[in-house]
Amino acid sequence: MLVDKDMKCLICNSGEFVCIHKGTRDVPHINVMKCQNCGMVQLDCRKYNTEENYTGGGMLKNTYAAVMDITSDMSWELWVQETERDDDRRYSALKELCSGKKILEFGCGNGGFLKRIKSVAASVTGIELMHEAREKIRNEGIKVFKDLSETDEKFDVVCMFMVIEHLNSPCTILEKIYNALNPGGTLVCETANADDALIVKYNCAAFEDFTYWSEHVFLYTSETLARLLTENGFQTKQNTQIQRYSLANHLYWLSEGKPGGHMKWVEFNETNMNKVYESELVKLGNADTLWYVGMKDLS
Ligand SMILES: [Zn+2]
What we know:
By secondary structure, the chain is of the alpha/beta class. It has helices spanning 51-55, 58-63, 73-98, 112-117, 131-139, 170-180, 197-200, 205-211, 222-231, 247-256, 261-264, 271-284; strands spanning 2-3, 16-22, 31-35, 41-43, 102-106, 123-127, 143-145, 155-161, 181-192, 218-219, 235-242, 289-295.
């Protein structure tokens, strides 16, 4: 057991960790640590996760190697295409909740979700660090700020999709979001699952080498995410999981050690089979994505 005297667990403040993976895909000397007390997974170094990396679009470039320069319309279009499936899924899941409400998306990326939810919401606002993305979204008629402090508006629903794992100080941000919500308002938080089946069931080394990244500084499970959010004032309304990637994606990882199997092995993309596979993974707590909905007190 490795006892790191400097690092404390985000959730339980314990100093006792084990190293579950040496190195991230971009920085070899960062270790992925798991709290021995509560199971929280966090990196032992957060200094590579800088604001500049987001404002300049470096994070995006690391995510989508093909999207190198979003000032070009071509790359912007490619990025918009890449997120379509997730934007559609989130829209379907949230259109009822967001109907007639004031919506804020914290970390709105290319604005794909806001553009969709705008059709049913009372108003939509985005927060986005990346300069170029803010400009593009603004040109499409959506209100967007770099920082939450730039608006005094209160919101009914705040969404964070694949953002919380990037935050060096999640509690500070959650407090600001809580204060920006109207009483009875809702927070929707989506993030990757630290207990993904490829890691904890299949022990897929290639996937572990690929998925751990200097910018995902905290990695949550359904349990640790709910604990963080309830400790920051939210009442849990829904705490479930989603499987974004298909069985073919998993089989390909296990056979070839590479991503993209959901597009390459389309012969395994039978809808019902994937639905059953997803529901089994969710039951086990090993789906790839966490979906948490919390409420701010009415008082
Ligand atoms: Zn802990």
